[in-house]
From TrEMBL:
Residues 1-25 form the signal peptide. This is Cytochrome c domain-containing protein. InterPro entries: Cyt_c-like_dom (IPR009056), Cyt_c-like_dom_sf (IPR036909), Cyt_c_1A/1B (IPR002327). It comes from the Bacteria. One of its GO terms (molecular function) is heme binding. Keywords: Electron transport, Heme, Iron, Metal-binding, Signal, Transport. Residues 51-150 form the Cytochrome c domain. PROSITE patterns: CYTC, PROKAR_LIPOPROTEIN. The keyword Iron applies.
Length: 151
């Protein structure tokens, strides 16, 4: 196997083992923000969580396996530079899945909050291999970091 093949295999294994999953404490939620135990009467909504860009920078480290916030630099995933307000599947030079191309999503903070929580539930058929961030605070922090990054 070549060096690139080994690297790709290693990344895939890390993602499958949860390398892109949750970290940190805070309220947990399902993709729609509901408690995974079903005990919370109201789901956690993005508007009810205040993100911290500094904490989000630390949490984004798990995303850096596949993404960057630098413009015009794609990795295994597309660049997330200036993602807010951008139509999904429009970063030049990245080969998106048909599901993402046809999703009709325009990335808002609320849409990212939902997608990061459950990528495959939000866009069935996406090729993004990501366990999701169930922790609502962690998701809000990552979004705060993405929106605070130079555009």
């Amino acid at each position: 196997m070549t060096g690139a093949g080994i690297r790709a295999t290693t990344i895939a294994v890390l993602m499958l083992l949860g390398g892109c999953g949750d970290s940190g404490a805070g309220p947990t939620a399902t993709a729609d923000g509901a408690s995974p135990t079903g005990t919370d009467p109201e789901p956690v909504r993005y508007a009810s969580v205040t993100g911290d860009a500094e904490a989000g920078e630390r949490s984004f480290l798990q995303c850096k396996i596949c993404h960057t916030i630098e413009p015009d630099q794609n990795r295994i995933g597309p660049s997330l530079h200036a993602i807010i307000g951008r139509k999904a599947a429009t970063v030049p030079g990245f080969a998106y899945s048909p599901a993402m191309k046809n999703s009709g999503i325009t990335w808002s903070e609320e849409e990212l909050f939902r997608f990061i929580g459950d990528t495959r539930g939000t866009v069935p058929g996406t090729k993004m291999a990501f366990a999701g961030m169930r922790n609502a605070q962690t998701r809000a922090d990552v979004i705060a970091y993405l929106t605070a990054a130079p555009q």
